[in-house]
Amino acid sequence: MTDKSDQHKCGCGKNNGDCESHRDDPGLTPVSRRDFLKRSAVIGSGAAALIAAMSPLRLLKETITAEEFVQRHYKEMSKEELDKVIARISAKVRDRFGVTPRLRDVKPMDGVEYVYALNLSRCNGSRRCVHACVNENNQSRSPEIQYISVFKMPKGTMDMEQGTRHYDPEQVPEDDSYYLPVQCQQCENPPCVKACPVEATWQEKDGITVIDYNWCIGCRYCEAACPYWARRFNFTEPDIPKERLNPDMAYLSNRPRPKGVVEKCHFCLHRTREGRLPACLEACPTGARIFGNILDPESEVSYVLKKKRVFILKEEAGTLPRFFYFFDK
Amino acid sequence: MFKWLRDYLYFLWRCFVISFVGEPLFYIWMTFLTCLALIGLNAYCKQLVHGLMMTGMTDHVSWGLYIANFTYLVGMAAAAVMLVIPAYVYKRHDVHEITIFGELFAIASIVMCLLFVTVDLGRPDRFWHLIPGIGRFNFPISMLSWDVVVLNVYLFINLHITGYLLYMRYLGREPNKWLYLPFVFLSIAWAVSIHTVTAFLLAGFAARPFWNTAVMGPRFIASAFAAGPAVIIITIQLIQKVFRYRTSIEAIYLLRRIVQVSMIINMFLLLNEVFKEFYTDALHNASARYLFFGLHGHDALVPWIWTALAMNTVSLILLMSPWTRRMVPLNIACLLLIVGIWIEKGMGLIVPGFIPNPLGEIVEYVPTWNEILICVGIWAVGAIIYTILLRCTTPILKGKLKINLKYTQRNVSY
Questions:
Q1: All domains of chain B in start order, with CATH
Q2: Per the CB < 8 Å rule, is A237 touching B45?
């Protein structure tokens, strides 16, 4: 039968005759004009359905320019390329917010390694740091993205599961609790950097782990890898009111982020690398936060690390945080 | 000189043409799938416009249904090897005839995997950052970059093996062993590797104690080698009916035995996991408590996991009994197992990894309709691909789609 159908290969000249091969498998015969027209109609309506299905795309506000599409990784760009990119982003910020930003690329300094220390005896859970951070770093306000989570912990435990971020008393601090602020710990052995499939996040020589928001593909693997829940994803276009924009910004820190990328605390590198202190520290009403260069033996953090009984969160995770906690009345 | 190229292009053209032609049932099926795929595409376009906010995912549960389906389908793709090993290593002739259906199934599964990863990306426009050479690839450090490599290579190995064998059959020539056998054996190792790497992807981080377990890899392999052959058992029967392609019952019995053994191992490993979590009863078992019993009143997954466990247990009992030598009970057992493992290994594995989050907060995850429609769309695309592959393959295997004699004769006379 196989041979027969081979030799036929439409010897009968028809498409729907009673020749064996047709009945067996109509697909193996040439196509008649009528069938062709019928098929064209099917293909036409299919294409129409396809266009209809894709119609939501017309709502796409922001289109990606060719320049943005081919932009290279931060570390691979020359000075000139980066300047061009910065000019482009500045123009975009100006168009969107009506403010000309002071956008620049701030490099790490030699001989500096930043370390944070937090005095838990002093922290009173006011959460001023949380809001100062949001204002400083141009996070989305709706939905609001926060880099710092302050946990109200019942006294007598270090188990984070016992604490809560959602507390709202008349007055802080409350007697039975202490407060534990957590943000990116700027680990020396960061699992997030290991996780990223495209090297969009890396550790700089001053210990700060940064993200190239124009390189991140938004897979959120780093979020899964972080033991401190420090990373945030832009699930939608970040919404920042015009009057709230902080125009003092750097490429690797607080410039407005696009939709679909990950962000996190960067120790306010646009401030700290120019000799100022992080916004969360300045906002703290109790002086619980201490920041500085661990490589400088005279610095306050060096003193704290030498003299106080400091500890780190989740030591067992092996991440070697640069964020230290201590109790000190 | 370019005759081989012309022959090959003509072959592709004919395959293209017959994938649009069939019996009424074929048209109904393909139209149905196309509608689902378009609905999924529509949902994805909405997600592109509004962002991943359209899904149920949050910073707390940052992976959901997409990655759950991805994990499951990597296993499906790897399971093709359960036909390749008996056919090529143990020289089972009856299995040899159906091996190709397993390999085609692997191709469709891998395409679905790649689609699921793509829809999960926040910036799909930057996919090229993942391409070695032009992007910046964190290889070999990132397990995700490993996964990208092994999945794509596995896709090409299978495309090569099936494409080459089918084309030789079409030409009526004896295939050259050296051109496909090395790849067949490579595919065996590779199949195991794709699923192991996917397990490592989850198991590699201290941040998620629920995933940070050494049995993750073995569990993945065992569940894949149970669910995959179960799907193949059912598809083989469908192929028999729809495409009138005869296969031997012995091959199905062999698959049944494979499913039996894999399922026993799978359940055993699950038991190990459950023992370790609950007998030790340390703080790290919060996710497991959430999954099986609920935590502080949050219990969205509890009914699901117990349903899955019930399905798996019933299916195992059925499989071990002689009833499943008949097709109807066997199919019921297979269906139970396919769904049971999908729940246990998809939602039951990915989601609890995020609950509670590393700082002990509990935020539950419920997929949105838009997210579900995208998933349905991708499954429909996978089914379309598999149907088309089968549509082209069965006539070639039956010897009905061959290089046209007249055509070759004409060429000779030129």
A1: 3-254+373-413 (1.20.1630)
A2: no
